[in-house]
Write a structure and sequence with these properties.
This is Fatty acid desaturase 6. Keywords: Membrane, Transmembrane, Transmembrane helix. The protein has two domains: 61 residues, no CATH class; 206 residues, no CATH class. It contains eleven helices and no strands. The structure holds zinc ion. The site of zinc ion (ZN) has 5 residues, from loops.
């Protein structure tokens, strides 16, 4: 079993999430833990993993550039293109246009935050390691207000390496069992934009000073950029108004996001 998990990690460390560079080291002799019976089981799992990898690579080989990268890059580009009109609409004195600007910015932020950070954490946005690193910092730290190191470790080494293993591979990070159900489902998720950078800071413990300083600066840059644009482009006159607008836009889709997260976990626990 252990060898299969290691293989999974290597597969993910091979930065193979979206663009097909899955690298699996074929270990002929799996790690023994349970005597002879365990060995047969391990060999079976090992060959299943190899079979899965072979099928994934076959699909990737048969896919076009558009299927592998084009669709995702177009969606991300469209989201970034929504931002200028959103900032301009937020400067409108007409309630309807203002609300439309809010909606547009909330949707764009959610797509950039979820899709961009996911692709970047897999290194799927570029073949180059340097550019992959750049995109990870840009999407996870500047756009997502989180730590690139913690995000990639949590998603690649924990979530994908232990898919469907509750407590290790489930992506349910929203665990606040002492809250009443309604508060937990509909009110508390609205605080996610505030909690996220704080959790990121907590994850920086043990990292080098350079990583800590970079992460803090990048998160601050992302938050300040949006604030600056709201003041200077949208024409917000009060600090509180701009900050409240940022909170609403960033929290807008956190309720459905948390719901999907919870139901995904329930599906794994209860099964079909
Ligand atoms: Zn993933």
């Amino acid at each position: 079993m252990q060898s299969v998990q290691e293989e999974c990690r290597e597969c993910c460390d091979g930065r193979g999430g979206g663009d097909g560079e899955i690298k699996v080291r074929n270990r002929a002799v799996p790690v023994m833990k349970n005597g002879g019976g365990g060995r047969e089981e391990d060999v079976g799992k090992e060959s299943l993993m190899m079979e899965l990898t072979r099928l994934v690579q076959k699909v990737i080989k048969e896919s076009s550039w558009w299927e592998r990268k084009g669709v995702d890059c177009s969606i991300l580009t469209a989201s970034f293109l929504c931002l200028p009109p959103a900032f301009l609409l937020l400067g409108s004195s007409q309630l309807l246009w203002f609300m439309l600007g809010m909606l547009l910015m909330g949707l764009a932020h959610a797509v950039i935050n979820v899709k961009g950070t996911h692709l970047a954490s897999h290194g799927a946005l570029s073949e180059s390691q340097t550019w992959g690193r750049f995109w990870a910092i840009f999407f996870i730290e500047i756009c997502g207000s989180f730590s690139a190191e913690a995000g990639m470790h949590g998603h690649i080494k924990m979530h994908h390496a232990h898919t469907n293993v509750i407590g290790l591979g489930d992506s349910s990070i929203w665990k606040v069992p002492f809250l009443p159900r309604i508060v937990y489902l509909f009110i508390a998720p609205l605080s996610v934009p505030v909690i996220t950078p704080l959790v990121a800071l907590a994850h920086l413990k043990g990292h080098s000073l350079g990583v800590v300083v970079r992460t803090v600066l990048m998160i601050a840059l992302g938050l300040y950029s949006q604030y600056w644009l709201l003041i200077n482009i949208s024409g917000f006159r009060s600090v509180h108004g701009a900050l409240f607008c940022m909170l609403v836009c960033r929290a807008m889709l956190s309720v459905p996001y948390i719901h999907v997260n919870i139901f995904q976990k329930l599906d794994k626990e209860i099964g079909p």
